[in-house]
Amino acid sequence: MERQEIVLVGAPVEEGAGRKGCVMGPDAYRTAGLAVTLEALGHAVKDLGNLKPAQTGNVRAPNGTVKNFAAYAGWTRVLHAQAAALGSKNVFPIYLGGDHSIAAGTVSGQAKAAAERNRPLFVLWLDAHSDFHTLDSTASGNLHGTPLAFVAGMPGFDGLLGQALAHPVTPQNIEVMGVRSIDDPERALLLDQGVGVSDMRRIDEEGIPAILSAFLNRVKAANGLLHVSLDVDFLDPEIAPAVGTTVPGGTTFREAHLVMEMLHDSGLVSSLDLVELNPFLDERGKTARLMVDLAGSLFGRRVFDRPTRSF
Ligand SMILES: [Mn+2]
After folding, report:
1. pLDDT tens-digit profile of 157-175?
2. Rounded distance, CA 222 to CA 220, Å?
């Protein structure tokens, strides 16, 4: 396979989640051997270490419900700038969260870089939740429930970047896969905006290959770039307990690997988030190792080569 220049960017963010621990996520991926796993597949890996949030001065929360808004703004700004810069280079960034709020910066930055290359950005959001709350609709106030709405250009996020979002992701270019927990305001907004949603029932009924290949065909036909945002809770908590928001009935080991293997074979993926790993809740590193193994499948690990057969 093609050798990739992979860049690791640590974003030790936990202010978007309801409980502490995601701050340790980037180092857990390092401990679990992410770099050596990718290097063993023939890729070059450069680790930029962990970022620090930008100073935001006196940014104020738009309402009293949202928690840690200034921290969210600081992380969004530094990650947006980093992702926009990496997206303009011939490298593959992997953003190591941190809770899922990091995607406000990573996806918006990748979208900016894609727009500058005249390519549409598509987003595959692998998650138990749709993270499509606005700052007004969130009941918990936990900001890791809002990044997808922000990058899709939903209103009310002024102050997050300190300027309007110039390059939102077209909602129809987003596929949310693996969901099994959506709040009513999110459901209404997802439907209204035409976001693709393949919930667990649809995965049960139609299977990963049919759903994912239809989406990948759309990305390819549009000459799109594809950002993948992998939340630990996409996986069933039996195999991935290290997350603060477990929801039963997630994807199996094989379903998750199949997603990654199909993504690899497509050659369409250009950036990746690994988010919501909470090492404090893990069992002897098994969730961190599974996430690293899934990254391995995305970057070409396979049991056997599968040459196209001609008869
Ligand atoms: Mn999430």
Report:
1. 988 999 999 999 999 999 9
2. 5
User: 242-296: per-residue pLDDT in tens?
Assistant: 999 999 999 999 999 999 999 999 999 999 999 999 999 999 999 999 999 999 9
Hey, what are 239's tokens? 């195999």
For the question of whether the overall pTM of this predicted structure is more than 0.90, the answer is: yes
Measured in Å, residue 127 CA sits from the centre of ligand 1 at 5
Residues that place a CB less than 5 A from ion ligand 1: 100, 127, 131, 231
Take residue 155 and report the two structure tokens written for it: 């209103």
- Provide the phi-psi class of 305: left if phi over 0, else alpha when psi is between -120 and 50, else beta: beta
Give the domain ranges of the chain.
Answer: 5-298
Residues 6 or more apart in contact with residue 299 via CB below 8 angstroms: 4, 6, 38, 41, 43, 264
Looking at CATH, the fold of the domain delimited by 5-298 is given as: Arginase; Chain A (3.40.800)
* Continuous segment of H or E residues that includes residue 63: none
Q: Which two tokens stand for residue 299?
A: 């970057």
Active-site annotation, residues: 100, 127, 129, 131, 144, 231, 233, 276
Separation of alpha carbons 262 and 222, rounded Å: 18
Which residues 6+ apart lie within 8 Å of 310 measured at CB?
A: none
Residue 234 phi/psi, 5° resolution? -60, -30
